[in-house]
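Exercise 7. Given the encoded structure of a 412-residue chain, write a plausible sequence.
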């Protein structure tokens, strides 16, 4: 294994998806809906599969299928209040994963520093390391310790953040709405980050795959819209999250042409082009939603409404069983502190180093409920911050959330 991959051998997803296959628990682990996406999107794919146009089954333009980049440019031009060039300022990728990879590999050079906010989506670190960059971590910290905790109570220390910026800093990775905390960064919080990026001439890689999953009264704000930020921001989205079709693995990155051009270089020599039929179907989905963006029926508005009641239901049953959840302002994950229940768990039955791994594995095997250990989202020196927590996903059928509540209350 090349040295640049040393330390990246373990993946929480590989391990926990295998555990789910072997133990068949009620799975609130990996983030995906266990119910059907909107019918129009799967119908669009079926129509594309049967289309009389044979070219829809062949390679398409490498940097993004023309129909998809056209509608993405229309949508984001409207959301950003700025004209986006579909040919030069957007790249369609194999999932947001590839957009992250192309952005990091296309910009980070040996010895460059990248600031990562903890907890973080776990692939950021190995991607930076594989580009021979250096990760500099800063944890979100819980500013109060009361019975009702919101993801908004997890904040960055301004001075600590400022202290990480220096002449070697190349990039900061932002994730809002946030996985796993569900934090939706406020305008004031984003301004602190934007001001530091401008002061130190640093790029911002903004992972916004949960952009439509925001609960009232919170609002998703795009850091690319701040003065002086468009020219230094690459923003990432995901059709898997946007249309509840995570298996379609289609993402995109948008930003100024000079920055996106570096992503083109990475993409054209590895993936080259992403699947045509899937891109065509997603384009059809966006074309429909663009005609009703401000209406209640728009899926981008109905999905968060539906998720909000699932969030509230989960928050309630986790509290009832004795856990201490952080109620998310966005996204579809909930972090909960389980330490009050530790005496009911055999913490010696697994030999993992961190308690959250032992807790989640014991729960999968003995109680039949799967969550994800959140220390996977921290650097080694900060893993202790999340050892008493678990991450649950709530984009699940109501009946399965009810089952999860029953499993926990029967165990209790
Ligand atoms: N970023 C974040 C924060 C995520 O949670 C995910 C989850 N899959 C991704 C990126 C990757 O998205 P995709 O499935 O489109 O590759
Ligand atoms: N983003 C999803 C999650 O956090 C899926 C991650 C993955 O499959 N690697 O659960």
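Solution.
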């Amino acid at each position: 294994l090349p040295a640049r991959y040393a330390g990246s051998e373990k993946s929480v997803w590989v391990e926990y998806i295998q555990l789910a296959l072997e133990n068949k628990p009620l799975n609130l682990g990996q983030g995906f809906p266990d119910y059907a996406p909107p019918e129009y999107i799967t119908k669009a794919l079926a129509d594309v599969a049967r289309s009389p146009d044979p070219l829809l089954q062949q390679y398409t333009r490498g940097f993004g299928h023309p129909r998809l980049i056209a509608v993405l440019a229309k949508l984001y031009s409207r959301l950003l209040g700025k004209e986006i060039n579909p040919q030069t300022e957007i790249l369609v990728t194999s999932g947001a994963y590839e957009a992250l990879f192309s952005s990091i590999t296309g910009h980070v050079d040996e010895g460059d520093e990248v600031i990562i906010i903890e907890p973080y989506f776990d692939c950021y670190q190995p991607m930076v390391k594989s580009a021979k960059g250096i990760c500099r971590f800063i944890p979100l910290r819980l500013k109060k310790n009361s019975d009702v905790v919101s993801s908004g109570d997890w904040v960055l220390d301004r001075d600590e953040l400022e202290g990480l910026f220096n002449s070697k800093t190349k990039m900061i990775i932002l994730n809002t709405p946030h996985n796993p905390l569900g934090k939706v960064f406020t305008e004031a919080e984003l301004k602190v980050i934007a001001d530091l990026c401008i002061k130190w001439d640093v790029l911002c890689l903004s992972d916004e795959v949960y952009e439509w999953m925001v609960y009232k009264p919170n609002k998703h704000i795009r850091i690319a819209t701040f003065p002086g930020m468009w020219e230094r921001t690459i923003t990432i989205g995901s059709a898997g999250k946007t249309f509840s079709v995570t298996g379609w693995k289609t993402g995109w990155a948008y930003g100024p042409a000079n920055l996106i051009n570096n992503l083109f270089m990475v993409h054209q020599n590895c993936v080259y082009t992403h699947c045509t039929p899937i891109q065509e179907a997603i384009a059809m989905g966006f074309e429909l939603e663009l005609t009703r963006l401000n209406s209640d029926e728009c899926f981008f508005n109905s999905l968060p409404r539906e998720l909000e009641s699932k969030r509230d239901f989960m928050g309630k049953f986790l509290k009832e069983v004795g856990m201490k959840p952080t109620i998310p302002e966005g996204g579809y994950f909930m972090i909960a502190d389980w330490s009050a229940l530790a005496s009911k768990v055999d913490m010696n039955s697994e030999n993992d180093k961190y308690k959250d791994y032992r807790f989640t594995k014991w729960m999968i095997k003995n109680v039949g409920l799967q969550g994800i250990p959140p220390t996977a989202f921290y650097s080694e020196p900060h893993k202790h911050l999340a050892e008493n927590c678990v991450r649950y996903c709530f984009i699940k059928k109501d009946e399965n959330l009810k089952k999860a509540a029953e499993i926990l209350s029967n165990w209790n």
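Remark. The first strand starts at residue 26 and ends at 27. Students should compare their own answers with the one above.
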